[in-house]
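So, can you check this one?
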Amino acid sequence: MVIASAMQPIWRFMVENNTQLKEMIRSMVIDLLQGQKQEAASSQPVKQAPRGQVEPGVFDTVDDAIQAAKAAQARFEDCTLATREKVIADIRATMRPRVQELAQKTVEETGMGRVADKVLKLNLTLDKTPGVEDLVTECETGDNGMTLYELSAYGVIGAITPSTNPAETLICNTIGMLAAGNAVFFSVHPGAKHLSRLLVSELNQIIAKSIGIENLIVTLREPSIESAQEMMLHPDVSLLVVTGGPGVVKQALQSGKKVIGAGAGNPPAFVDETADIKKAAQDIVLGASLDNNILCIAEKSVVAMRQIEPQLVQEMVKVGCVLVDNQQDIQRLVDLTVLPNGTPNKQFVGKNASVILDAAHIPYNGDPRLIILRTPKDHPFAVIEMLMPILPVITVDSFDEGLNVCLLLEAGLHHTATMHSLNMERLNQMARKMKTSIFVKNGPSYAGLGFSGEGTTTFTIATPTGESTTSARCFARRRRCCLTTGFNIR
């Protein structure tokens, strides 16, 4: 692995003082295991890393990071629920003023999305990610006593985060996983490593200042595929939470550990002749264009009944779309954005519509939010999860045909689908047939994340492994506790 020249002095220090560093970590772990009082620890100022040493929570090896997290979690597990609530409240309050800066840094590093849209997503994360309140206790009582079902920590969670929503996923997972009593090793995407490392370091400082425990959130200075694989197999990682493509989810499932896997999605939006066409057009454009379509839940295609398709397209143009209806222009877009192997050209993933149109030499006015075009159901833009502000519109002649096309496009991923209709029977039938983790009726796709819709938010939607929209309760073990001599007062 090549180390950036700016980091070489730090690397040399770490190598030359390896024995000293290990002794420092060993001494810290011994102190932690001796059970220092939380109140005494929390009254001390946050310790600053010695000059030349890594940032708080940032390590050079997987094992060092996980061992530090394990020691921190042993202390955290003994804390009260009120302590967990306090640290989550402090994370929300401290990160809120940083939202604009984090959004800007994310766009600068990844080259994807829009700053204003990332601000919306980050605020949504801070506002609507559930905490300790999500850990609901169940109870049964009867003649033979009482049984409680409680949710307790796994220990150290290994979490993989993407480059598409790096800050949102990291903060959202941190809140939920801490609420459940865990520590977290974040294996972050190399394409967002600087932002992610900064976030982990700052979260550590917030936590340490709040409750006096360091290294509850850890990561590596230089993430890699190899380090992610090492983390997956580490004996002290009890649960894997993977937010990424199907390849990394498949690899995690082969680890032999409990896995919560969030895979790919290719959500269709179905509009029938009974829909409020103007509202449907606005909702689809809002959902599909948010952060340049890099959200996995965003509309990736539109399936429209023939009798309302012209009006729908016209209304979409009114609210910020560019209609590309020249076949040569459409082919140029395909050649530009789809590689010969049938995958999206990463150069244009998450880019503004104007950037893609300029590269394809297609004229437009203003700053369009979305490129729309009419295609058949088997067109590359329809069947590939492009993660770009390019939205194909497919025409059908009946509800049954439209439902079948939606099933074809969604390809059994069971991730997300939307429908615009005033026919309750059709809405219900599509919801049953699609079997998606998120199904939005008469709204933008992001309503399924709690934005302009009811419910909590998450950026880890675990469709492959069945947890769906994850929250703190997903990151906790369900345990059964029996009392045979009581307590039943009925």
About this structure: The radius of gyration is 24 Å.
